[in-house]
Each structure stands twice: as structure tokens, then as C-alpha cells.
Specification:
With 431 residues, the chain is α/β, with parallel strands linked by helices. It contains 8 helices and 20 strands. The strands form 2 sheets. The protein has a 10-stranded mixed sheet with strand order 2-1-6-8-10-12-14-16-18-20, with helices on one face. The protein has a 10-stranded mixed sheet with strand order 3-4-5-7-9-11-13-15-17-19, with helices on one face. Helix 5 packs across helix 6 and helix 6 packs antiparallel against helix 7. The protein is globular.
């Protein structure tokens, strides 16, 4: 059965049981019809040619609709150490896990609430946002975070996937809206059991009000056999900042799609992405940043490491609209091939409709520096350790940007274990 046929069958079977709150049954049905007409993305489409879409033909799209005690127990074992000062909210297989979460409601001018499903424009979105539309058709719940002007709160949302993808899908859904002059730190994590071939399809919608600031850290550590897709849409208003650091270490097949729009004068986005994959894993990302107002600024930094026979890909697409005079954009996209069978594709794209802008880009793909490796070996460092140190040096500039010390240490440890099997403290001492 093709993926689109399975999609239609699964939606027909589950529609009546889905909640009809913020997203009505009629809206869910219309979204599904749009997807059936357009079809899911395929490798012949330019922005999907590097993604691994084959697992979709063996997966189910129906979500879990009732909590599962065994899944809750497994999620409890998988949760990382809490972050000091952060209120944690946990979602297991797409359903809010109240026993593992802080209370919902309003505190510190920040409201955390649940709603039935997610739309935020995804219901009518085609093109590269079709997996976001898929979440709009199926997701039973979403977490909504609304920050007022006096916001003073740190939020962590952990999405845990435990259900086998052949049985059910997980739809992590998150909406974040900052009022004018609001400030918020948000940590978003995606985790799963190492031996579970889960399927998670996340959808996020972000709005940052005038002169607001959102510091958003995303960490994807899905299971080694998982399929993990995610779609993020963001809009940034006048003089606002959206600082987004993303880390990707997990999943057999991972695809990240981001479309961010600088909608107000002086809006700014700083985006970084650090990726390390091995074996036969595939990690693909497309980031479109649209300058739609004057004096807007973006900076994109990407570092991807592929080992074994893995593949990494990143497409950074910057659009300068005609009314974006005085805007500036920079891109630094680099990948490291750490194995004879690896592949990397990094593609900066500039689409400019006005002369009064500054735009720079750089993209490289290369192997471990043999001279640096020889230098380390000549100092008595074992080959595997020397290679791991050079990989770590390749990423460390971006990892150092993570503004939360506890989380940064956890990410460092995860990368170090991926490279060497040793604790991150050993790596730091050697560096």
C-alpha cells in the first residue's frame, strides 16, 4: 500500500475519534483532502531529493488517543535530568503526560495550556509544509505557550516517542506566542528508545511580538531506528529577536523544515544547527528565511558530520523581498565527511529583489584534515581519539552558543559519546 493510500485509510478510521476543539472535523477532513490531492513529498522534488522518505511506506499515520501506562513508565525511564529553573512539560506519543509535568496554567505572565490539535496555518499549507499539514489533520493535542510583556519564566517541553511506527504515529505539536516586549527561554526536546522504530511528525508555530525575544533550543535525540520529521513556522515582528539553536543526533531518517518570516522593521533571526550521524542514517534540513521588512538581519550557521555511510544535507534559502531595504544576511554552511561512504550536500540560496541589502554566504564539504590528524598522532594521541577531537573541534563553536549550562553539558556529553564512547569531560580536557 502506498503512503498516500495508507494516509487516507488511517484518517477515515480515526477522524470521528479525534477531538473537535480548535481544529474541527471539517477542517481536518479538508486538510486530508488537500494532502491526498497534492501527495506527500517525493524524491523528485528539489527540496526533498536528499530526504529518506522510504520508511513512510511501512508506517501507520493514526495517533494514540488514550494514554498508555506502559508508555508512561518507559518515558519516565527515558527522561533526561531536569534543567535547573525550568518548568518541564512532557508529552508521550503525542499525549500530554500530567504525572510527569509541571501544572498547566499561568505563572510569571506565561500561560501553558492544552488545546485540541494544531492549525496555525498548516491546515491550508502545501509545498514543503505538507508534513505540518499532516499534523494538522491528525494531531490530537498541542501545547500552547503564551508569554505576556512581563514574562519571566523558563519552559522545557519534552516529546517522547515510544510507539512502534508500524502501530501508531506521534504528533508533537507546540504553539508559542510572545506578546510585545516579552522574553522567554524555551527548550524543546525529542527523545525515544534506542530500539524503537517510532514515527514522530512534529509541527510548531512561533510568533515573537514587537521588541520581544525568544531563545529557543531544540534537541533531537530520537531512537536510532526512528523516523522523525518536523515542520516549524515562525514570524518575527518589529525589533524582535528569535534565537534558535538546533541539535540533531538521533533517528534513522530525519527531516527538518523551517520557514521563518521577518515581518517587522529591525527584526532579527540567528539560526544554528549542529548535526552528527553515523551508520546509514540520513539527516536533511531545509531552512527558508524571508526578509519581508526593512533593516532585518539573519545569520545562519550549520555544521554537519557524517560518519560510516551516513548522509547530511542542508539547504539555507534566504529571500530578500522588495521592501527589505537595508537588510543583511550571512550564511556559513560546513559539513565534514568522516567516512569513505558518507555523503554531504550544503546549499546556500539567495533570492534578492532589492539592491539595498548585504548578503554573504559560504559552503564547504570536506574530510578530516590529514595534517591536523598527523600532528595529533605524532604527539602520541591514539588515532580514534585524535579523530574524535577533530570532530569535536568542528562543532564546538556552535555548541558553545547554547545559553543553558545544564543543557549544554548534556549535549556535549551526547556528542562525545557519539564520537568516542567517553564522557564529555574527557573530551573537554583533551581539547
Amino acid at each position: 500500500m502506498s503512503a498516500i493510500t495508507q494516509l487516507a485509510s488511517d484518517h477515515e478510521a480515526v477522524l470521528a475519534a479525534l477531538p473537535a476543539g480548535e481544529v474541527s472535523h471539517a477542517a481536518r477532513r479538508a486538510t486530508l483532502e488537500m494532502l491526498a490531492e497534492q501527495g506527500l513529498p517525493g524524491p523528485r522534488e528539489e527540496n526533498w531529493r536528499y530526504a529518506n522518505l522510504r520508511p513512510l511506506e511501512q508506517l501507520r499515520f493514526t495517533p494514540r488517543l488514550t494514554p498508555d501506562a506502559a508508555a508512561l513508565a518507559q518515558a519516565t525511564e527515558l527522561l533526561p535530568a531536569p534543567l535547573a529553573g525550568f518548568d518541564r512539560y512532557v508529552v508521550v506519543d503525542g499525549l500530554f503526560a500530567a504525572p510527569l509535568s509541571a501544572p498547566t496554567g499561568t505563572a510569571g505572565d506565561v500561560e501553558v495550556a492544552l488545546q485540541a490539535g494544531i492549525d496555525a496555518g498548516y491546515g491550508s499549507a502545501g509545498g514543503d509544509a505538507r508534513f505540518g499539514a499532516l499534523a494538522s489533520a491528525f494531531a490530537p493535542q498541542a501545547i500552547r505557550v503564551a508569554a505576556g510583556a512581563g514574562a519571566a519564566r523558563d519552559i522545557e517541553v519534552v516529546f517522547v516517542a515510544t510507539a512502534a511506527g508500524s502501530e501508531a504515529a506521534s504528533y508533537p505539536a507546540l504553539l508559542v506566542k510572545l506578546a510585545a516586549q516579552a522574553h522567554l527561554r524555551l527548550v524543546e526536546r525529542h527523545i525515544g528508545a534506542c530500539d524503537a522504530a517510532t514515527f514522530a511528525n512534529a509541527a510548531l508555530a512561533i510568533e515573537v511580538g514587537a521588541a520581544g525575544q525568544l531563545r529557543h533550543v531544540r534537541v533531537q535525540q530520537a531512537g536510532a531506528q526512528a523516523t522523525h520529521f518536523e515542520t516549524l513556522r515562525a514570524e518575527v515582528a518589529d525589533s524582535a529577536e528569535y534565537l534558535l539553536d538546533t541539535v540533531a543526533l538521533g533517528a534513522q531518517s530525519a527531516r527538518s523544515t523551517t520557514h521563518a518570516r521577518l515581518a517587522g522593521r529591525g527584526a532579527r533571526i540567528a539560526y544554528s544547527r549542529s548535526v552528527a550521524v553515523d551508520a546509514t542514517r540520513v539527516n536533511d534540513a531545509v531552512v527558508v528565511i524571508e526578509h519581508a521588512a526593512p533593516a532585518t538581519i539573519t545569520a545562519q550557521d550549520y555544521r554537519g558530520i557524517a560518519a560510516g555511510r551516513a548522509r547530511v544535507a542542508f539547504n539555507g534559502h534566504v529571500i530578500m523581498r522588495a521592501n527589505a531595504a537595508g537588510s543583511a544576511s550571512s550564511q556559513s554552511l560546513r559539513s565534514l565527511l568522516a567516512g569513505p561512504g558518507t555523503e554531504a550536500d550544503v546549499r546556500p540560496q539567495l533570492e534578492i529583489y532589492t539592491d539595498d541589502v548585504k548578503a554573504s554566504h559560504g559552503a564547504t564539504a570536506g574530510k578530516i584534515d590529514e595534517q591536523m590528524l598527523f600532528y595529533l598522532l605524532s604527539r602520541g594521541i591514539e588515532r580514534r581519539t585524535a579523530q574524535s577531537l577533530l570532530k569535536w573541534a568542528f562543532l564546538t563553536e556552535l555548541i558553545a552558543r547554547i545559553p543553558i549550562p545544564d543543557l549544554r553539558a548534556q549535549v556535549e556529553r551526547a556528542f562525545a559519546q557519539r564520537f568516542t564512547g567517553e564522557d564529555a569531560a574527557v573530551t573537554r580536557e583533551l581539547v
